[in-house]
Amino acid sequence: MAEQQYDVIVVGSGPGGGIATYALATAGLKVALVEAGPRLKAGVDYNGHHWPYEYRDRRAPNFWRDNFLRGHFTPVGDRPGHGQIRALGGRSVCWAGHSLRFGPKDFESWPLSYDEVAPYYSRAESLMGVYGYRDGLYNMPDGEFLKPVPMRCGEQRLRLGVERLRQRGAKMAFVAQRKAMLTEPPNKPEWKYRQKCHYCGHCSGCAVDAKYTSVNTPIPLAEETGNLSIFTESVATRVRVSAPGGRATGIEYKSGDGAVHELDAKAVVLSCSAVETARLLLISDVGNSSGQVGKNLTSHFGVTVLGFFPQILGRDASNDDGTSYYHSLLTGLYWDEPSPNFEGTYQVQCGAGVTSHRRVIRSAPGYGRSLKKKLREWNIGHAGMNMQGTTLISSNKFVDLDHERRDAFGMPLPRIHLHYDDSDVAMAQDMVEKCEEIIRAGDGEVIETPGTVSVGDLVIDLNHWVGTARMGTDPRSSVVDTRGRSHDLPNLFVADASVFPQYPEKNPTLTNIALSWRTADGIVDRFRHSELG
Amino acid sequence: MERRTILKLVAAGVLPGSNGLVQIACSQSGYKAEFFSTSELALVESLTELILPSDDHSPGARAAKVSRYIDVMVADGTSNAQRSWRSGLEAISQLAKERFEADFADCDAAQQDKIVAEMARNEESPRTELEQLFAHLKRMTIDGYYTSQVGIQEDLGYKGNTAVDEFPGCSHEAHMSDSE
Predict the structure, then answer these.
(1) Partner residues linked to A85 by β-bridges
(2) Contacts of residue B148 in chain A, CB cutoff 8 Å?
(3) CA dihedral A519, A524, A526, A532 (to 10 degrees)
(4) Which residues on B lie below 8 Å from A322 (Cβ)?
(5) Which one in A153, A222, A474, B103 has a CA-CA gap of 20 to 30 Å to A418?
(6) How many CB atoms lie within 10 A of CB B87?
(7) pLDDT tens column, A7-43
């Protein structure tokens, strides 16, 4: 029996579900937010300020590592990864905060234009608090920025290398990162649960809520409206439908004790992440008349190249923590002229400096004084370049159900199929060569590189999956419309990165938040026009 | 473990004796090994110091008590790994006896270096038992050293893991431009 009727049920409280909940509840709709995990408290349930030597195994507690649900899927092919944080806020709790707008060029292959999304980017940045420099890059537009955070010494050497190559005609840019962290005092009412960043570098489990999460901004603000009921430790097991081809009537969920519950609502929003949203749609057998649910899967992937710059050894080495490792970004590659060797493009996240909790370099040849000196110099004088490219969307990558393996709630596990295409390997090879060139142009020495790339070198980003419920105008080839609404059920919506129809090299979360906010506003409009009751 | 206790145990034939023992008893005073025997721990300590020695910049693996970290990690490890360590350390002792007719601890610096050089010669693709032990030993020495106070603060000069008001970033003209 259904417990109570809500206007909207939101399943999942990550970046998409958090912002949708906020937009719906502040518009006056009664919202039930259903989250598989518990509610954690920053600084209590996780706190990064430790030293490794305080612990027997030298592994300081790490929220990300210790709470990540990594085995909750069946891998097929080239080492796909998938992770979840089952907690209120989902992966917004442990994300790195990188907030880059997709640009006009990126939206050319979408059924939406940049100009349609831009106002939501502005609203998202203003609510989240995003720092950055105004770089004036046309395809990574500037936003509503807080005071920026500068690069470190090693990153300046990379920037110098890029500048020299640009003078020789190379098309690329090297800029500082943009992240959703408060670099200014929390002087907006929306930031009352947050604090200013203190640059300790433990961002993936920010203990003071300087980094934006669903739990420190949209969810508590939604709670203040009195319109929000939160169901934690409640695992959605099915979308309920009135009749085939009818409407969504709500969801079924299981609580920790295994008891089955039902919730009724006039509309249902799925925000479970690309893999889990596809899984829930497939298990429920809804919204898939196109046959596209779980298809068009793509993520970011990459390899790493390290450089060493003897020029910076004499610096006052000290505190490079900042907002964790990546303070800079190589971007602007292949925006105008696509590569003949691969489809799409990549960016390269760059970092530098010594940290206690992320020891970057721990291998060098030999032993004795020369080894010790080399490790010291390499750690102090290195810069790291981590490629983030988009895997080619192809029939080699998709999510389906594993009917052989079920989770603790009796639901089939998702199966992730990842087989890299030739284009992917060619892209990584291009990145390796480009990074080596930049390091040398900055008068550095390449100290770690895959050299010739093979599939075995490629590392998938297990947090960046998108595309499994792609948006489009044609119901035969897409799962949702441009406002995230199912083509099949008029009151079923998807508000997460599953809806991305194409994927640029840029990090997904800011766009997920902007689009999910836009989708939620669309739902509010439909309630106002009595389309949803 | 008190020095006196160790000597008593040796006298009772519980632990193998070695000339290095007195020196070891000093540097490991107060530490009761969880997996290694006293002589094994002493050997591991000497090897770690050979891999990351004290120099004019910073103290080495001995001062950072890396051997204790390895002892704990091996104690917590699999029985297979424990067997490899025990047998590998024994093989080093044998090698010292074969080459120099002495315990490793009694070999002079040049002799000890010869033994480590032999262990380290196929670092890229270790094949023999000694080469494989070296790979483990080196990895754990580096891990232990750079997670110790000595490694992090004294060797790398790291001053972070703390709250600061602003992040200064790089403002060195020489790092940003052609001038050096």
Answers:
(1) A68
(2) 53
(3) 110
(4) 167, 169
(5) A474
(6) 11
(7) 999 999 999 999 999 999 999 999 999 999 999 998 8
Question: How confident is residue B30, by pLDDT bands cut at 50, 70 and 90?
Answer: confident
Q: What percent of chain B has pLDDT over 70?
A: 82
- In angstroms, rounded to a whole number, what is the distance separating the alpha carbons of residues A116 and A452? 42
Cβ within 8 Å of A, B 82-141: 113, 116, 120, 123, 138-139
Q: What is the pLDDT of residues B50-93, one digit of tens each?
A: 999 999 999 999 999 999 999 999 999 999 999 999 999 999 99
Top pLDDT among B12 and A519 is at A519
Q: Is the CA virtual torsion A254, A260, A265, A270 positive or negative? A: positive
The ipTM value here is 0.87
Chain centroid offset of residue B92 CA: 14
Residue B26 contacts A where some CB pair is shorter than 8 Å: no
* pLDDT single digits (tens) A346-363: 999 999 998 766 667 888
- Those residues with Cβ within 8 angstroms of residue A404's Cβ, 6 or more apart along the chain or in another chain: none
Give per-residue pLDDT as tens, A298-330.
999 999 999 999 999 987 667 899 999 999 999
Place of tokens 């390449």: A446
Q: Encode A197-219: b = buried (16+ Cβ within 10 Å), e = exposed.
A: bbbbbbbbbbbbbbbbbbbbbbb
Which residues 130-149 of A have a C-beta within 8 angstroms of B?
A: 149
B113: closest chain A residue by CA: A368
> Which residues of chain A have a CB within 8 Å of the CB of B126?
none
Can you read off the two tokens belonging to residue A57? 């195994």
**Among residues A91, A35, A361, A50, which one has the least CA distance to residue A204?**
A91
- The reply to whether A53 touches chain B by the CB within 8 Å rule is yes
A139-to-A71, A105, A118, A334, B180 alpha-carbon distances in Å: 37, 6, 12, 11, 34
> Three-state SS for A252?
strand
Structure tokens at A529: 């026009």
Q: Does A52 touch chain B (CB under 8 A)?
A: yes
* Among A181, A195, A316, A367, the residue to mutate for chain B (most B Cβ within 10 A): A367
